[in-house]
Write a structure and sequence with these properties.
This protein has 214 residues and is α/β, with parallel strands linked by helices. Helix content is 29%, strand content 22%. The strands form 2 sheets. It has an 8-stranded parallel β-barrel, surrounded by 5 helices. It has a two-stranded antiparallel sheet with strand order 9-10.
């Protein structure tokens, strides 16, 4: 793994300044939450205006919670998304035929069985900590050994309680395809802290580089 190969996503974007900051400091992607129950919900029209002002190379990901395919497709087209991140009870057969890259979210609890991922064919799995009634941004971690095992079934993006302080350890331990952060770099829900965003990306990249040079 080379340092530049680690996929770094800053999620829960609600404003242009934070999105531009993510791009400036070297993140690969930004995430927009289209679940109205989230503190980081963003209206699709606002997300569209933000995406229009971002570099083309930056991946724009929409997070959908228990949404149906027509709603996902309509929003993805309107906003100009690169990928859709799906949280829900979708089975393997439900994820074929999308025009966009598909990231399937698994919320990991102690009883999580990684074998449940076996039949999914997606661009990446995103593993997040489970918290009842929450769909991301919980600030909770989970047993990273499960993420290591999950790599047998495809690309793994590690989320759940990542911060500038622990992302380096996470990257070195799991060696994931990517990392995803939301609450760990916030000043408050929906507003990023510039210092934390910069430090998170730097620590993630440095850890990835250290793996490459071993």
């Amino acid at each position: 793994m080379q340092a530049q190969d680690l996929f770094v996503k800053i999620c829960g974007i609600t404003n242009l300044a934070d999105a531009q900051l993510a791009a400036k400091v070297g993140a690969n992607a930004v995430g927009f939450v289209f679940h109205k129950g989230s503190e980081r919900y963003i209206d699709p029209e606002r997300a569209k205006s933000i995406c229009a002002a971002l570099p083309r190379h930056l991946t724009k990901i929409g997070v959908f919670v228990h949404a149906d395919r027509p709603e996902i497709a309509q929003t993805a087209k309107a906003v100009g998304l690169s990928a859709v991140q799906l949280v829900g009870d979708e089975g393997p057969d439900d994820l074929f035929g999308y025009e966009w890259s598909v990231f399937k979210v698994f919320q990991v609890r102690p009883s999580f069985d990684v074998e449940s991922m076996r039949n999914f064919v997606v661009d990446a799995f995103l593993l997040d900590a489970y918290k009842k009634g929450a769909y991301g941004g919980t600030g909770k971690t989970f047993d990273w050994n499960l993420a290591v095992k999950a790599k047998s079934f495809g690309r793994v993006i590690l989320a759940g309680g990542l911060t500038p302080e622990n992302v380096g350890d996470a990257v070195r331990f799991v060696r994931p395809y990517g990392v995803d952060v939301s609450s760990g770099v916030e000043a408050r829900p929906g507003k990023k802290d510039e210092r934390l965003v910069r430090e998170f990306v730097a620590q993630a990249r440095n850890a990835s580089l250290s793996i490459e040079t071993l």
